[in-house]
Amino acid sequence: MDANRYALEVIPSPPVFPGAASPVMSDETLHCRLAAIIQRMQQQQIAQLIIYADKEHGSNFEYLAGFIPRFEEALLVVNQQGELTYIMGNENLKLVPFARNPGRCLHAPLFSLPNQPMHGEQPLDQLLTKAGIVAGERTGLVGWKLLTGRMFDLPHFICTAAAQAAGGEAQLVNATGLFISPDNGARCVNGADEVAFYEAGANLASTAMLAALDSVQPGVTEKALGAQLNAEGQPNTVVTIAATGERFAHARLYPSDKRITEGDRLSLTTGYKGGLTSRAAYVVSDVDGLQCHVSDWLTRLAIPYYHAVVSWLEHLRIGITGGELYALIETVLPKAHYGWHLNPGHLVADEEWLSSSICPGSAVTLKSGMLLQNDIIPSVPGYGGCSIEDTVGLADAALRDELANAYPDVWQRMTQRKAYLTGVLKIRLPEEVILLSNTIGYLRPFLLDKRRALVRQ
């Protein structure tokens, strides 16, 4: 890769859209989600589902319910007839009347917090039977990982109760793939209503990130940057990162009182439903500010990485296989030289990482309605990292027309982002690529220089 193909230029910052409204998905969308799950149950001959949720692992539950159980566990039982039963702890019983797909409610005090009242406690297997689990029927357990074989990621006491209610362990199958399999998971493809909902989170993350980048100066604390990254009181999908210098001192994951020093490496990350934005670079004004042992960082790491991101964006299209996209990154940014080891790209939804087909030899094709994060993480010993992770999507002509007609504000933002990418950054995007984040493709490698960014020549 010829480093002269990219250069630092004085350019305007990307447009941002603070204060954008957060759409509420329609009842029709939530009902369609339930229908999509039931269709997959029928295809795979699964008579009944037991869907697990807790605060960290609630997205498959939330996909149908519209909420998570906050700080307790919960179960949602679904059968092929579309009957739903919510099994809830003490402090989440009150949420069930607001469920987007209505169902009856059963009380499970054992899901409550330690030492809370256990009035009305019943064995969980009996509750599952009351919820409609029929013995002798094929029963799917839904956690949050695509495990193979007879493996389940639900707590053991729930698996035991499920086996008892279903008539034995032989009746249990891992059914998480109904939701998140990158080939045919219901949650992997979004309609216009869902794209508009998730765009709000991607817009929020990238708007907050640009504000934080503009505030980077020696003497600013990690906490000050973290406060800008945590926006509008919305729940984060990942731990917010504002880390200067060496990370993880005293096993600390969160922004601290440490102050930025010129010459530091700096990592910033924030994520909300539908999108994460991450940046990593050096706190210097130009290449002369880099310490001598990393003085070639721009050409050794940052520009090759940027070229990989540009290549990823320009080759992304409906119908490309995950294996083809993986091979592209292996060609332009060889793993052996640049140290990345995760999937170079993955699907995004309520959680930052849904699943990914982008792996060696994958024949799974990317489809209209998929939302993706360009998650390529180089790691070269002795050098600070470089990162410009953001969220994009794929939309065929029909989905683009629906977005433009039903969500003109969202579509206008997407149009402005694309105009910036093509007109200012000179990145040639396929027509079906839609942009949910504001900062896609925008890399300031030297964080004290707020005017210059890398641009293709």
Protein described:
With 457 residues, the protein is an alpha+beta fold. It is built from 12 helices and 16 strands. The chain folds into 2 domains: 3-20 and 188-456, Creatinase/methionine aminopeptidase superfamily (Creatine Amidinohydrolase, Alpha-Beta Complex), CATH 3.90.230.10; 45-174, Creatine Amidinohydrolase, Chain A, domain 1 (3-Layer(aba) Sandwich), CATH 3.40.350. Helix 8 runs antiparallel to helix 9 and helix 11 crosses helix 12 (408-423). It is globular, with a radius of gyration of 23 Å. The relative contact order is 0.14.
Give the secondary structure arrangement, pairings included.
Layout: E1 6-10, H1 27-43, E2 48-53, H2 59-65, E3 74-79, E4 84-88, E5 104-107, H3 124-130, E6 139-142, H4 156-166, E7 172-174, H5 177-180, H6 192-214, H7 222-229, E8 241-244, E9 265-272, E10 275-282, H8 297-315, H9 322-332, H10 335-338, E11 346-347, E12 371-373, E13 387-389, E14 391-394, H11 397-406, H12 408-423, E15 433-435, E16 452-456
Parallel strand pairs: 2-6, 4-5, 6-7
Antiparallel strand pairs: 1-16, 2-3, 3-4, 8-9, 9-10, 10-13, 11-12, 12-14, 14-15
Helix pairs in contact: 3-4, 6-7, 6-11, 8-9, 11-12
Task: Describe, in short, the structure shown.
By secondary structure, the protein is an alpha+beta fold. Helices cover 30% and strands 16% of the residues. It has a six-stranded mixed sheet, sandwiched between helices.
